[in-house]
């Protein structure tokens, strides 16, 4: 294995381990589609299309991963989702 291959392999492993957390959004009967979509756009920087797709997945499947990344970056976003009345957790 060349030095270049080994360095590239180490970088790829580091990238994979740094993005190992997810915010999971759960379905509820309280929030409207518009509220969920607008909140995902504001909090998670989703496009309108991404937010709409996530809201439909949550509605039909009961949950959806709405953001992935490092825990320290996801924590404030998850808190904002919870403060907006949505049901979410970091896994």
Account of the protein in words:
- The protein is an alpha+beta fold and 91 residues long.
- Helix content is 60%, strand content 19%.
- The chain has helices at residues 3-18, 33-44, 48-61, 71-83, and strands spanning 21-26, 63-69, 87-90.
- Strands 2-1-3 form a 3-stranded antiparallel beta sheet.
- The longest helix is centred in the N-terminal third of the chain and has 16 residues, at 3-18.
- The protein is elongated.
- The model has no long low-confidence stretch (mean pLDDT 90).
CATH architecture: 2-Layer Sandwich
Order of helices and strands: HEHHEHE
CATH class: Alpha Beta
In order across it, which strands form the biggest sheet? 2-1-3
Percent strand equals: 15-25%
Name of the CATH superfamily: Ribosomal protein L7/L12, C-terminal domain/Adaptor protein ClpS
Low-pLDDT ranges: none
The name CATH uses for the topology is Ribosomal Protein L30, Chain: A
Q: Name the average pLDDT.
A: 90
Number of domains: 1
The separation of the N and C termini measures: 35 Å
Task: Based on the model shown, name its key terms.
single chain; 91 residues; alpha+beta; Ribosomal Protein L30, Chain: A; three-stranded antiparallel β-sheet; 3 strands; ClpS_core; Adaptor protein ClpS core domain-containing protein
Which helices and strands appear, and what pairs or packs with what?
Elements: H1 3-18, E1 21-26, H2 33-44, H3 48-61, E2 63-69, H4 71-83, E3 87-90
Antiparallel strand pairs: 1-2, 1-3
Can you give me a brief rundown of this structure?
The chain is α+β, with helices and mostly antiparallel strands and 91 residues long. It is built from four helices and three strands; from the N terminus they run H-E-H-H-E-H-E.
């Amino acid at each position: 294995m060349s030095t270049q291959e080994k360095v590239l392999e180490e970088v790829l492993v580091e990238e994979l381990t740094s993005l190992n957390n997810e915010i999971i959004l759960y379905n509820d009967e309280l929030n409207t589609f518009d509220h969920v979509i607008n909140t995902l756009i504001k909090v998670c920087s989703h496009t309108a299309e991404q937010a709409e797709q996530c809201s439909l997945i949550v509605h039909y499947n009961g949950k959806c991963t709405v953001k992935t990344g490092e825990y320290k970056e996801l924590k404030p976003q998850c808190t904002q989702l919870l403060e907006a009345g949505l049901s979410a957790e970091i896994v």
